[in-house]
Hints:
Blueprint: H1 4-33, E1 35-37, H2 39-48, H3 51-72, E2 77-88, E3 94-96, E4 101-104, E5 112-127, H4 131-197, H5 206-239, E6 248-250, H6 265-275, H7 277-298, E7 303-314, E8 332-342, H8 349-416, H9 421-456
Parallel strand pairs: 1-6
Antiparallel strand pairs: 2-5, 3-4, 5-7, 7-8
Helix pairs in contact: 2-4, 3-4, 4-5, 4-7, 4-9, 5-9, 6-8, 7-8, 8-9
Amino acid sequence: MIPKDIARGCFLSVILCLLITMLNCQASMAAEKARVFTLDQLIRMALENSPRLKMAEEDILAAKSEYKEAKGGGLPQLNVYATTGPMENARFPTVNLKTGQIVSHDAGTWSIGIFGDLDLFLTQPIYTFGKISDRKQAARFGIAASKDAREAQRNKIILETKQLYFAYLIAEQGKDAAGDATSYIDGAERRIKRLLQLNSPNVQTSDLYQVEAYRGEVKAFAAKAEAGSKVAYGALKAAIGLPKDEEFRIKATELPRTSAKLAPLRVYVQRALSERPELLEVREGVAAKEKLAEAAHADLYPTLFAAVMASVAGDPGRQQFDNTYIYDQFNHSYAFFYAGAKWHLDFGIQSGKLDKARAEYQKMLNAEDYARRNIPVEVMKDYEDVIEQEKASNDYEQSVVGARRWIVAAFSNFDLGIGTAREMFEAIDRYGKNQGNYLACLYNYNIALANLEYAIGEMTYKP
């Protein structure tokens, strides 16, 4: 028989193995569940789930409804009035020929009946001096401006997504850089401790204090990178509309190092002035305000129209009195066509509206002038930032390589007894600073390139 202690130990071992296997399976399933996204996929999800873009779409629908309303002002308008009520029955009216009024009726039994009346008024504007046509044109420009505003919002969302994406990548690379620096510090510590055990005159106990000082600085940098990574991850997750319980990963592991082949600055300025959605929106707004000002001026003039009027009335309890000169309002049927003019006159209301419309038009003109002056400055700034950060990142990349070689040489010299701990620390410190500056410049380069694309209104995105 198997002793109880051995059996109990075997049973616990089996249970432990099963638990470890289940945990590994769950971890593997969780790892498989995390979706992996490229930058273009993140941008697509951000655009699909952006409330701001959906609001921009609603603004377009609202602008289209305003155009529909303005267009309807030039179409016929029909007013229908239907009335009914009680009325005294009468069969044989007696009429005063001098006044044309009914003075008596049959002397039968008095009773109450009911009558019905249906009146129709159909009017068609003929000429309005621009009241309708100008407002239709203004509504068309309003639709175009709303579409430009949607495009501007789309570009802004793409830019913000790129900014979060690059922020997350630089934080992740910062964590890796901190790990590299830690490994170098650990290597220096091992070498110092080994020589201290050998009582080498080449090292001192205080060198270990420097190790701890540098390690603390690296830990602080690693903590900062970790916090930045979490913040960027959370912001990016919210931007793409991913549920809180769903995780994701980014396919790329490093900031892009592609070199931009820039065209001359004037090319980008011309693109911005011709394709920047914000500027196009302002231009459409200027045209819309101009047409609204013209429509307000047209309101000072009359409106010519044609109309058709028809009426049908009946009262079963009253005899119809058919006479051209006497109008029977309870039993009749007629229709006729006429033309007319409607002219609204007031003492300051219309002129005040006209002054307001002209002021809004002038305001939009000033906004267009402001945008036309400042957009080229913005393009030039972003253009120069791209050139500057690209050069700086290339220079720091070479300095990182040099600093890494310095570390290798310093470690080798220290092992051979011809170097000092201070030289190792200086090499490690310089490597950490150069690596940090390189990542910062590379990040700034990608951000500057995204800003330049936004400034000219051509955000690169492959749906």
